[in-house]
Design a protein that fits this description.
The chain has helices at residues 3-11, 20-30, 49-58, 69-72, 113-123, 140-151, 161-169, and strands at 39-43, 61-66, 81-85, 98-104, 124-135, 175-179, 184-190. The chain is built from seven helices and seven strands; from the N terminus they run H-H-E-H-E-H-E-E-H-E-H-H-E-E. The structure holds S-adenosylmethionine.
């Protein structure tokens, strides 16, 4: 049993930190790529709190992808929200099906980030957006958090903003990394080419 299977009763509440203001901010970052009626994929979306807020704020369809049944079972059952069981590394959804991907506090949990980003480039339409909110591992507090995550069997594969931007750009998703509160930062990029076309 993995960390999120046994920790889900606690971790699923973590998504409650998102409020209407956050949704307006995040929707603002995505709006250039997501028109009303568009499609967003929340990878590692957990219990779907952000998905529900974004579905309302963007008037979009939001799919929550997560491998942990105990998280996914709490995704709200409502129009324009879909819960799909699966991993970032092997997304069980069609090519170019989404206008944007969001990944909040989940990217460092992916065991094969290379495969995950290849999947992002496949399922997002050319020109679509990829938004990753994650944590810079350099501050001391973050080093302690990374150690704690490794102790419970998680990869804690945190990237600095510079590493994230380089990693994404070299895989066809150039973008910018911008500091957020505390150790958080956001990566916002555009899928430049269809990597599946080769
Ligand atoms: C800390 S929670 C964050 C949940 C939500 N995105 C949020 O910000 O509240 C991390 C989530 O990533 C999911 N996860 C872990 N490994 C994953 C993978 N390989 N692919 C997709 N999701 C994964 C976990 O099941 C968990 O729901």
């Amino acid at each position: 049993m993995g960390f999120f299977d046994w920790a889900a009763p606690l971790i699923r509440r973590y998504g409650d930190r998102f409020g209407a203001e956050d949704a307006v901010t995040i929707a603002g970052w995505l709006r250039a790529a997501v028109e009303p009626g568009g499609h967003v994929l929340d990878v590692g979306g957990g219990a779907g709190q952000l998905a529900a807020l974004l579905a309302d704020t963007l008037t979009a369809h939001v799919t929550v992808l997560d491998p942990t049944a105990a998280m996914l079972s709490h995704v709200p059952t409502r129009p324009r929200i879909t819960a799909v069981s699966g991993s970032a590394e092997d997304i069980p959804l069609p090519d170019s099906a989404f206008d944007a991907i969001v990944v909040t506090d989940a990217f460092h949990h992916f065991r094969d980030q290379d495969a995950a980003v290849r999947e992002f480039a496949r399922v997002v339409r050319p020109g679509g957006a990829v938004l990753v909110l994650d944590l810079d591992p350099r501050p001391l507090a973050m080093r302690v958090i990374a150690l704690a995550e490794r102790l419970v069997g998680e990869p804690a594969a945190f990237m600095t903003p510079e590493q994230m931007c380089t990693f994404m750009a070299s895989r066809g998703i150039p973008g910018e990394c911008t500091p957020e509160a505390g150790a958080s930062y956001r990566f916002l990029g555009r899928v430049e080419k269809d990597l599946t076309a080769a």
